[in-house]
Sequence to fold (1787 residues):
Amino acid sequence: MSRIGVFICHCGENISRTVDVEQVAQAARQMTGVAYACDYKYMCSDPGQTLLKKAVAEHKLEGIVVAACSPRMHEKTFRNAAQAAGLNPFLCEMANIREHCSWVHDDRAEATTKATDIVRMLVERVRKNKKLVPITVPVTKRALVIGGGIAGIQAALDIADCGHQVVLVEREPSIGGHMAMLSETFPTLDCSQCIMTPRMVDVINHPRITLHTYSEIECVDGYIGNFSITIKKKARSVDMAKCTGCGVCMEKCPQKKIPNEFDKNLGFRPAIYVPFPQAVPNTPVIDREHCTKFINGKCGVCQKVCGPGAVDYEQQDQLVVEQVGAIVVATGFKLYDITEKPKGSAIKGYGEFGHGKIPDVIDGLTFERLASASGPTGGKIVRPSDGKEPKQVVFVQCVGSRAREKGISYCSKVCCMYTAKHTMLYKHKVHDGQAYVFFMDARTPGKSYDEFWRRAIEEEEAVYVRGMVSRVYQKGDKVVVMGSDIAVGVQVEIEADLVVLATAIQPRDGADTLAQKLGISYDKYNFYSEAHAKLRPVECATAGIYLAGACQGPKDIPDTVAQASAAAAKVMTLFSKDQLEREPIVARVNEKFCVGCLACKKVCAYGAVEEKEIRDRQGNLIRVVAYVNPGLCSGCGTCQATCPSKSVELDGYTDEQVMAMLDTL
Amino acid sequence: MNNSTEKAEQAVTIDISGYDVATAEIRSEAKRLLTEKIVDAVVGYQAGRRKGSAVPVIITDPAQAEKLLFSPACVNNLSIYLTKAKKEIRAKGKLAVVAKGCDLRALAGLVGESQFKREEVVIIGVSCAGVHRAGIQPGEPLTNSTIAKKCRECSVHIPDEADLVVGKLPPLPDLPPKEKELMEKLDAMTPALRWEFWKEQFTRCIRCLACRQVCPFCYCEQCLCDRGRPQAVDTSPRPSGNMGWHIVRAMHLAGRCAGCAECERVCPMDIPLNLLNRKMAEELKELYHYEAGMKPVEKGPLTSYDEKDDQSFIK
Amino acid sequence: MKHDFEPKIVAFVCTWCTYAGADLAGTSRMIYPSNVRVVKFPCTGRIDPVFILKAFQKGADGILVSGCHPGDCHYMAGNFHARRRFAVFRKLLEFIGVDLNRLEFSWVSAAEGGKWVEIVTDLTQKIRKMGPLTQFTDLADEEQWSGALSNPELKAVYDQV
Amino acid sequence: MALTITEENLRKLVDRLVKDGARVVGPKVAGEMTVYEPLTSGAELAPGTLPRRSAKEAFFPLSETILSFQKGKEGLKVEDVDTNAFPRTVLLGALPCDAAAPQVMDAVFSWDYKDEFYLERRRRTVIVGLSCTSADDSCFCTLVGLAPTDTMGSDLFLTPLAGGGYSCQVVSDRGKEFLAGYPELFAEAATVTPVPPAEPEGTPVDLAKVKLWLEEHFEDEIWEEVADRCVGCGACAFLCPACHCFDIVDEGTEQSGSRRKNWDACAFSKFTNHASGHNPRDVQNKRYRNRFMHKFKYYDDKFGKTLCTGCGRCIRYCPVGIDIKGILEEIGKKALSTKDTKGHEENHHG
Amino acid sequence: MSPTKNVLNYSYYPGCSLHASGKEYDESARGLFKALKIGLQEVPDWFCCGATPAHNVDELLSLALCAKNLELADAVEGDLAVACAACFSRLKTTQHKLGENEVKRKQVEQAIDAKVSLDKPVKHLLEILARDFGLENLQKSVKKPLSGLKIATYYGCLLTRPPDVPQLDCTEAPTIMERVLETTGAETVAWSHRLECCGANFTLSRPGVVLKLTGDILASAKRAGADCLVVACPLCHGNLDIRQKEIEEATGEEYHMPVFYITQLLALACGVPPGKLGFNSMIVNPTPLLKEKNLI
Fold:
């Protein structure tokens, strides 16, 4: 390349004050390969860029060096200008003679010499630059949303409303997730079914959302824009097309006494069941473990009574493959179970609370089901042991959360608020009841959150005891809660009728296996890791995969919905163009020289290097070489530095360019 | 490469009767493998023209199995015939290879670098008490003065990861580690003196590239030092280019070298190249507890990392 | 003020952290010696030991390699691989006989303009005191086979090989 | 009457030559090996054992700058090497297998292109051969028509005498001229009893028959059998007194640098690598076949000489023990049975 | 006494109480182990483990005391058996702390000028019976089953805490004593105060606290219908047994609940003659209960 233009900027007088720009231009004209060199007061200004474009045409320039500010400032500007002038943008480089030279050296002669050296270095570099064309990766404009809770529903609706196809996969027989279990939600106490069910109906009715319930992700292949997802649809034993949702089968099913997981085993359900009345889709599922037909082949009542003949015992699990361009992970959370031994904890669950053996010690979600109008008790707060109305209820905060020795050192963020809500719900239902809350400190940072918490204390007269609970034990039909009240400095014993533990929020079971299938990273608690804690909270480091809701970390419904819409927005930016355009600074393998030692694959943090078989026309294998997937490569170059024979080369930072710069020393 | 101090060390002859046992077992095993078509070729050693010498051989016909042998002259690391650089040998089909302990470490390294799959190769391991060092007339007995430096400090006499281990190990003499002493002397020197030492060594290098061609891990299709654009390392055998060449070679073998010290043996100018690889091996052992082993590892020390790696040298 | 010997310092830096740190030093108008020449890379993971060797051969008197703090790497693991690579490479250079004070490594984040200035200034002063690095440049003028060993101690080791 | 020179006078001769500004290249001990190197004083002379590297370096050095260039203010400046500045050289103490080689190589260096660098050094060198008294089982000069006492290529030829000192035989007029310069160092002796010369094992091989055999056996499984083990390094070519291939490469930067002529070897895989990537000799045994053919056929076809003096260095230093002596003997036996079908006239060493 | 063919052999660290107020614990332990043919070789001239006061005053002292005991115990063959919960806790904490903290280890080694030996396993009697000896063997060696006896097992606060030091059993819900006692046919009741503190040393400085805490324990055991309490720590035994009269006066409740050491009942079940088990030196006379259950 022998016709290079060097444009030296005064930057007002930021550069020309300490660097003799004319002298640098003069020196530049002598450099090999430089056909034109000039200096101008404001290169980045409009006249400056016009000057550049004119010079390219007039002097038939093949490469440009703009000696001005840092490339981190105006590289884009000048590359666009070069492109406008008909030049490949990657043949334009910036020589940083402002931040790295004029601003940091005060001796004029030294600064001018250094500026000339920097220009010479960049001229040599440009002479070795190659034309690069942005990488285009086709994008399948279809999104996959994993998890049908409020996060998944919100993301799916946003993307679908924007005109794109969405595949929503939910593990349970119905979407709704944990929010569907809640009675009323803070801080407005509006009933969660009322605000959520319409959204669930929108999902089932949405023309562009394909819903797979009672299904799980079997495996994930491909990369951003080109994922291929294998989904295992577990057999419902009911044909969804025929079923009208009349519910006769559920009434007639002889099996009545199966504990309903949705109601935290308080209520019961038949073998053929729908988790809760407002379930979407409203098609029942046969629980094959408890259904007598599957246990010993007898019964079959549901098939007989089913008008449309939708019940089909022969139905098998099915594998469905969906092609998608982006994935939103919204798998939600589960509550810490005091009988389990959490990962990384030295000891097993909460022995001091009797390991959950005391029937009247329940967790937050169970209280929600008790308080919920569509719950097993129709909204009446009763003691699970004898069904009586509890007159004294003790709420215990931070059970598992902020407890390092239990292996969970983080705060679960939402328990302070929902416990305050629980005291209110209890007060509304049992007017003469008294709620006690053992807490360390109340964390109520949201909008009108603290006012809600103050209301629980001042108006609903909940007694907040600042202190921890050391032991809960059964005493007769009472449940004694031994704790301390550190404000007063005494031991406190409360003989309560019901104890509600605000247990910690943890990721769903199997979160780590799903992460391995997706190839995304997760932290030591199995929460999924975002690409950057502050600046990229809804993206994964793995391109094309986004996060929404509690699977990324404990959060309440407002934050979850906000994050879901943010993730949807990210998906929409990805889908805004047919081709995914990416900076062409990616690695390429020279398949002639690659000997397939795959060292590059071992050091690639993005899994961008694959094995590629080279076969002759008859199809027999000649050799295996490395192949860099331009869609995934982020251009760090570690592979080239690791490859002994430099058979893999990072465009834009090739060895030839670097050596050319070093030759000018 | 012997010198006066060695006379002080009392002469010890190593009983190599076990090698004849190995020779017989290799022959029968090679014949079996070839006749039963388990492998298509056996890479082993056979007698050279000069009495007592041994050269690598690739036999395909069972009748030739009688020519195979194992003796102190079997110094070559036969794993070089299994890499991509020797396509014609691999083209013969499924191979069996005779391997000493140090050779087996190279084979394990090559499997780790996907050069061949472990099940594709039958490895006939030989319990080896030691082989000759460079410059020894073939046919001389194996004594403390004719044994190779690497064998004096060998820790892999029995290649237990091989498919079959032949031969019988004699009682092994405890020989003072000459190479370790040399390393200590070099480490004790000042950097300037060490520079003089290596400058002197590399000035003699004639760039015959024997060290590269016998190294099992130098199987690149095009070596960095053969490249013209850019010329990372000067190709002409002048001191500056030689210095660059040997530094790049040592760096490329760091964490891969199996310590078979063939590079040092074949150097016609007697340059102690194994010292470089040994220094790299010692550093990697100290820094990342890595040692070239008999079992292939998925990632070597320089293709993996640990959050808690030492960074005391970084400001 | 001019010194009789002005060292030539080459700095290999990653663009996301140290280059940005140097930019910050610029925007904060911090003054430091002008001996350093910066070569920009996407990541320290891309910096190949051959570049360090080439820079020394081209007459660099001091070399600085700097990038993101562990954990900050824009590419997640580039600096971890670089850390291991340079830990081993500097041991090789030390064994060959290069004075490691000539080769410095540091983590400079985009917010540490001050630290960049401090490191460059200290390095320049240190190298100024140490004088020019002649090892590699002298070697370039030598023809083959000197065959002449002056130092007796060296001769002893040499013979023992 | 035979001319003789004592050991001491020979060393004095070296001192005198060095003082006269001549470059005296002779066998000297460095570290643990003997090499042909410029001597600084007579004391360094250590004749007898075959040096590790061959004597060709006196005329055809390992690496040689043939021009250097500098881009300055006034454009490109190119500096040639002044071959007249080459020093007057005396190659002293070259054993017959080293002394004979230059004469063989003269043919190729003065063929269609006159290689001034080589030829100028040849013109300015006097070769003082030394009869060989010790051979090991790798030596095979007798197999290729030479002998431990062969004066081919030497201008003067010293033969070690039983009582010490050497008898000196004038072979060429250049030798006579050189001798005239230092008459006082030589003496006359009636009878001399030379030290018995070395007897390398092996009976001479009929090279003409070998050449014929080679013509028919370009494709023969002997190459695979013999050279599949070759690893493709340059040790044999670089140590061989007769190998003369070289490669030209530019070094430095576009601003300043030099063009260098370095040794090359046909064993290297890159040697016949075409720009297109095609490599006619893609497999290692083909490359070794080329080496053998060049030495015992191609060079003979062109220049009527055998490009091998039987010094045995390539046998001693081959990493995988390829033994050219064994191959030559084997082919020699096979060649005996082939008839002279093409009617080549009898010549191998002119 | 040189034990005839012994199944297991242990070195034994009794601790100060077992030579004084906790005499019956030591005698019954020796009797039991003799009956089960487990060798118990007392560590020659052992000395005090420092219990709670030492580590409150000077941690280095408490660690050095235990380190010295461990060094002495090294001379005796077999793992170190410990009966008293406090000694067990101190020895285990020493091994844990010195194993983790290099600086402290050097200080202690300087104090006792000997190398600290941390690898000798320290085991509580319960661990030996339940794990090494095995519950099935224990069941086989029962000669006189304690059927009909309702026992409230009392662990106290020290035996299983802090979580990762004693590693005897689950910290908050241990079952080792229940499992051991059930092999004798006795019945153990479920009650709430198994791991509540009995007030320990406050028995001297603030007896009121002990009365309250021990009172709750006795009340809870009575509520659960237990005939007696079983402990594995001389200090808990002291508070529950000696103070029982005062508690009855203070609370007006009737308890008469004998407090046995676990080794006393096990030895009785394994056929050791009652006379050797120190029943007569307990404040709350156990004989009526034992007679009623015709165990003596």
About this structure: The two ends of chain E are 27 Å apart (CA to CA). Chain E touches chain A at residues 163-164, 170-173, 192-193, 196, 220, 223 (CB under 8 Å). The first strand of chain E starts at residue 8 and ends at 13. The beta strands of chain E are 8-13, 38-42, 79-82, 122-124, 150-154, 187-188, 228-231, 259-261.
